[in-house]
Amino acid sequence: MGREGRRVAVHGSHRCCLLVPFTILGAALLMSWRPAKSTVVVYCPGYQILFVAIYLYPRLLFNVRVCRRWRKVTQDFTLWRHVDLLPYNLDLCKMWKFLRSHLSDCLKTLKVRGNVSRKNNWDQSPLSEALLKELKNRCPSLLYLHLELSNITKLPSARILPSSLTHLVLHRNIWPPRWFQGSVASLTHLVHLDLAETTRVDNHDVRDIVQFTNLLSLKLDGCYRLTEEGLLLIPKHLRSLTSLSLMHCNTTDLLAHHIARNLKELRELNLSFSKSLTESCLPIVIDGLLNLEQLFLDGCSNMSLKAFSVLSNSGTLKSLSIKLEESFSEEEIQPWKKKMERCYIQI
User: Fold this and answer.
1) DSSP label at residue 280
2) Which pLDDT score, from 0 to 100, does residue 31 have?
3) Count of CB atoms within 10 A of residue 25's CB?
4) What does the pLDDT read at residue 49?
5) Exposed, middle or buried: residue 271 (CB in 10 Å: 0-12, 13-18, 19+)?
6) Phi/psi of residue 42, each to 5°?
7) Local structure of 287: helix, strand or coil
8) What are the angstrom distances between the C-alpha of 41 and each of 13, 32, 36, 37, 148?
């Protein structure tokens, strides 16, 4: 639904149903203690107003000048359990102000975007070592941290992150060498790691990452510095993985063989845009990964129509994406589609 079209019905034991459009005007009317006779909005208990406020955009919640009652609602820490600030460009000063005024031990999810791009200063970042330490003390229950387009080279290591984290997402950031070195003891609950398109990630970093043997999901899309030597460490050490994504990486048939031999719990595998991957590795993948449900092979230039004949032997695949460079007619593909009728195929 659009920003202006969101509506929520609030029910009270002795009140009629309210239908309030999610606009600044609608929020202001809802906060009114005694609305004018011309409006259809009546007084709501505080817990009902808090329920409606959960669905508002952060920008509306920041508008605390509407009235005292609205300000009181926005200061309720339970309103800030799942915070998504990705639509906003925040510098370090604004992030400090937001942390001190809104975040508490109720926080579960935090998503932040910096200002790093090719056109501006790479030194800009919404996080600092001092801010992360304060976040660690204020929010001991933080489980999900998403950081995007930021320069984290000034952060000493991952040891300063909250130890409660289970999901860590670092998209398109500037990466300092060996940032995860010696961080296993401080991030014991980490099960999901996503470093998609983060710069400077190399084989040395993989050696540090594979020390997190409890990882269930690993995403290294676009980490072009990784070679076969570093990628082979993943199936050797992270045998509990259920999801692995290596899109735009230097994936080879040897790596696919090791994945099939060691990652028996794998349910989702993404090897898209692997120039060195051929269809000869597919029989090993299908026979070895008996729990595989989702497979992505888009843009693999060395794949041909023979790949379908191999993949059709899988009895567990539920989703297959295999967009090949060579075009095929519907008549050529139709027999394999019928054989894999239980699998969603995207070509």
Assistant:
1) G
2) 44
3) 10
4) 63
5) buried
6) -115, 170
7) helix
8) 16, 9, 9, 9, 40
Contact by Cβ (8 Å): 66, 31:
yes
- Asked if residue 259 lies in contact with residue 236, where contact means CB atoms within 8 angstroms, the answer is no
Burial 132-156 (b: 16+ CB within 10 A, else e): beebbeebeebbbbbbbbbbbbebe
Task: Give the DSSP letter string of 104-125.
Answer: -TT--EEEEE----TTS-TT--
Q: Which of these, 269, 337, 288, 275, lies nearest to 309 by C-alpha position?
A: 337
- Indicate the average pLDDT of the chain: 80
User: Which amino acid appears at position 125 of this protein?
Assistant: S
pLDDT tier, 231 (very low <50, low <70, confident <90, very high otherwise): very high
For residues 267 and 291, the answer to whether their CB atoms sit within 8 Å is yes
Q: Does 187 or 56 have the greater pLDDT score?
A: 187
Decide: 241 and 216 in contact? Cβ < 8 Å: yes
The pTM score is 0.80
Is pLDDT above 80 for 111?
Answer: yes
How far, CA to CA in Å, does 281 sit from each of 14, 127, 347?
66, 43, 20
